[in-house]
Write a structure and sequence with these properties.
The protein is an alpha/beta fold and about 90 residues long. Helix content is about 50%, strand content about 15%. The protein is globular, with a radius of gyration of 14 Å.
């Protein structure tokens, strides 16, 4: 395997999210205080007005994303899976 040319999945996610954000102004990103790890920080740097750091509040983040979707936004929520499922979302 060519390890020199491999990329972490989350790095690819952050880059693609920023690329999609350039193509569609309706895309917003929400993160649960993990943007450096989830790489949504890439999107945040390009589109600070469309990025929301929700803090350690995954349940609220999901509800906020649902609300944004009702207003014609396309939300991408990012956190670690173990945090997303622990609060009965």
């Amino acid at each position: 395997m060519d390890y020199e040319n491999t990329k972490a999945t989350r790095q690819s996610y952050g880059e693609k999210l920023a690329e999609l954000g350039e193509k569609n102004e309706k895309i917003v990103a929400l993160d649960a205080d993990l943007s450096a790890a989830t790489k949504t920080s890439i999107f945040a740097k390009k589109f600070p007005k469309r990025f929301f750091d929700m803090g350690i509040s995954e349940q609220d983040m999901m509800s906020t994303a649902a609300g944004l979707a009702t207003f014609d936004k396309i939300p991408f929520v990012s956190t670690f899976a173990m945090f997303a499922c622990r609060k009965g979302i």
